[in-house]
Amino acid sequence: MKNFDKKNLLLPTISLFTSMGTLMCCALPALLVSLGMGAVLAGLISQYPAITFISKHKIIIFIAAAALLTLAGIMLYKARNLPCPADAKQAKACARLRKISVWIYYFSVVTFIIGFFFAF
């Protein structure tokens, strides 16, 4: 049970962070410039220069994010019908963890699509 829980939550969470990376490289700068906040963007880039690194390597970031999202989707699809433990407390935790994993996955996909829209 514990091994399944960690794998079931770990990959969607990692895919969430890579999807957020796609937002940082492409959507955030486009949003700030379109709202007339170029000075805020310049200050943000001077504070966090990694944003320019992410922007320079956006194709690699998007490929990695897509691969992780695909892998997470496959794992969640395969795990959807796995049995939960017989203990009521553990079964409740297992069901809740599955729901959380699915929501994290869907949020990751949405953020990836938004980032992709702004990047390309």
Fraction of residues in β-strands: under 5%
Query: Overall mean pLDDT score?
Result: 83
Number of helices: 5
Helix content: over 70%
Residue windows where pLDDT falls under 50 for at least 5 positions: none
> What is the overall shape?
elongated
Q: How would you sum up the major sheet? A: none
The H/E string reads: HHHHH
Number-wise, the strands total 0
Structural class: mainly alpha
CA-based gyration radius: 18 Å
Spatial separation of the terminal alpha carbons: 41 Å
Keywords for this entry:
mainly alpha; single chain; 120 residues; 5 helices
How would you sum up this structure, described in words?
The chain is 87% helix and 0% strand. It has five helices and no strands. It has helices at residues 2-34, 38-47, 50-56, 58-79, 88-119. The longest helix has 33 residues, at 2-34. The relative contact order is 0.22. The mean pLDDT is 83.
Brief sketch in words of this structure:
The chain has 120 residues and is mainly alpha-helical. It contains five helices and no strands. It has helices at residues 2-34, 38-47, 50-56, 58-79, 88-119.
